[in-house]
Records
---
Amino acid sequence: MATTVDNPEAEVPLKPTTESPILSIDLSNETPEQRSKREKECKLCEDWKEEIIQNNPMVKTLLGAMNRAGCNFEKKHFRCVPCNNSGSGGFSSEEGIILCQNHFRSRPHMEETVVHELIHAFDYCKYNVDLTNLKHHACTEVRAASLSGDCKWMREFLRGKFNIKKQHQECVRRRAILSVRYNPYCQDEGQAIDAVNSVFDSCYQDTTPFAEDHK
Ligand SMILES: [Zn+2]
């Protein structure tokens, strides 16, 4: 299957280091129109962020579980920023959760992104995920894609038509491979496929901190 850098669903690469290409937008040549657009996007992202953190049940569950595990993760760890690639968000231990304010199609899209990235943050907190290890990265991507609703559209679209569980699994697998492919420690697609396949079954089954039947 093809993975390209243009894929609109691709995730901002999880950088194990502090260098982040998504923050490298040069604002010095910004026109007044561009500035006004950026400020509007930032305001909307901040407003939605506030509401999502307050109201989204999955976000509340994840934040509660992280606090109980001793990781204080709060509003200031979510940052709305303009991004210059096609992803909608990212997580790194240094930067927390990055929300790409210029790439959200809708509030539900942003909610899914927040949940997806928060599952990475939870895994980092709870399981000491080492993002330079492709199997670790693959596991947290499988969980994030499976639990965040990234593949929900497919479940709904196919309801009653095919073997839904199989389709959901294949969607999760495909998205996890795509994200691992962007890890700077991943050399080619074969490595990403191997990493995801080697951890898929156990990580797909692990629905912590949600109830068993969440998917
Ligand atoms: Zn991810």
---
Amino acid sequence: MIAKGFQPKTPLYKKKMPKEYIASPLKITADIEGLSLKSISEHYKLYEGYVKKVKEIREKIDAADKSAPNATYSELGELKRQETFAVNGAKLHEVFFKSLGPTSQELRGASGKVADMIIRDFGSMENWVSDMTAAGLSSRGWVIAAYDLNEERIRNYSADAHNLGVVYGCIPLVALDVYEHAYFMDHGTSRKAYIEAFFKNLNWKAVDENLILSGR
Ligand SMILES: [Fe+2]
């Protein structure tokens, strides 16, 4: 169910078919506070890999034998299972890289529509960061601050894998990647130091752009 008040400018059925899914370019070109360009660039390659797999899996789904479907094992069943892993892997990394620096002085610190909503829904920015951090230290994959279209508020959800813990009817606003590949190169086992660096480099303008998708 879409919450009342959500009115897309162009009716969805009138929109053109989406273009082929391609990775958004990496906009970071130098080290940022607490995260090296080397680490970010290697991480970005994983994102590109997910996008490529989305295309490959979907081509194989189109060509798969659909005459013998089976939930225990079938070519189609396995492809459909891996499709959600690859698609969510691509989408969550897209949100992650979009909102990760480079930040100008004006963008540093929390400001904007999402920041206002966070303060409304969590009491303060500090409460929200504290909740995200604790969830990030408890999760095996992601913590996603999402606008829930049904509840009409922001919730922090954790996911132990790209396609585990998905809550539907939600727009991801901030995606905190806590897989080891996101921080081991720069911080070793100190995930907390990485999470602190992540929040220092959060681009609130980009976060606000994600909210547009919710129609809010
Ligand atoms: Fe990642």
